[in-house]
Design goal:
The chain is of the alpha/beta class. The protein has a single domain, classed as 3 Solenoid (UDP N-Acetylglucosamine Acyltransferase, domain 1), CATH 2.160.10.10. Helix content is about 15%, strand content about 25%. The protein contains 2 helices and 19 strands. It has helices spanning about 20-35, 40-50; strands spanning about 55, 60, 65, 75, 80, 85-90, 95, 100, 105-110, 110, 120-125, 125-130, 135, 140, 145, 150, 155-160, 165-170, 175-180. It has a 7-stranded mixed beta sheet. Strand 10 (about 110) and strand 11 (about 120-125) form a beta hairpin. The chain is globular, with a radius of gyration of 17 Å.
Length: about 180
């Protein structure tokens, strides 16, 4: 049976806020978060919180980040989000404490069921646990948990949960070695 996109229907999906709030968010996102001339983490955090994001203390938000729906975003204390990160939060994205999300990272919480002739929408949350690091231009796919202190190397596509303190690289991602953190 062939794919027939004319039968696509995602009317079941509710993004969490009505059209007016989503439109206001889109404008605020472009003006304050995605805009590269705003270097202020403080302003970005205030705007995100106004729209329902839960953000801890000491969070660093670099210029040109993009957040789909801030009401689906939780960021723990002292975490960093790098330039050009795209948090495509159709479903919840939870980032733990002291996590590093490097530049150009893509968090993809939505996908399509390729076995469905209507190409149905599938949304699943992403969890980045405490101390984890997602490297530059990595992609984290729907439903993935990046476990405590694990590393997803630059350019990696991660489609399955990681194990704590392990380093993953490649497409598809594979374990390359254990992460050992030296004593302070």
């Amino acid at each position: 049976m062939p794919v027939d996109l004319s039968t696509f229907n995602n009317s079941w999906y509710y993004p969490g806020r009505g059209f007016l709030i989503r439109t206001l968010w889109h404008i605020a996102n472009v003006l304050f978060l995605h805009n590269p001339i705003n270097p202020s983490s403080r302003i970005k955090i205030i705007i995100l919180r106004l729209f329902g994001a839960r953000i801890g203390k000491g969070v660093m938000l670099k210029p040109s980040i993009n957040v789909k729906y801030p009401w689906n975003l939780t960021i723990g204390d002292y975490s960093w989000i790098g330039e050009n990160a795209w948090l495509d939060s159709l479903a919840p994205i939870t980032i733990g404490k002291s996590a590093c999300i490097s530049q150009g990272v893509y968090f993809c919480t939505g996908n399509h069921d390729w076995s469905d002739p209507s190409f149905g929408l599938v949304v699943k949350p992403i969890i980045i646990e405490d101390g984890a690091w997602v490297g530059a231009r990595a992609t984290v796919l729907p439903g993935v948990t990046v476990k405590s202190h694990s590393i997803v190397a630059a350019g990696t596509v991660i489609a399955k949960d990681t194990e704590p303190y392990m380093i993953y690289a490649g497409n598809p991602a594979v374990v390359v070695k254990e992460r050992k953190i030296r004593a302070a």
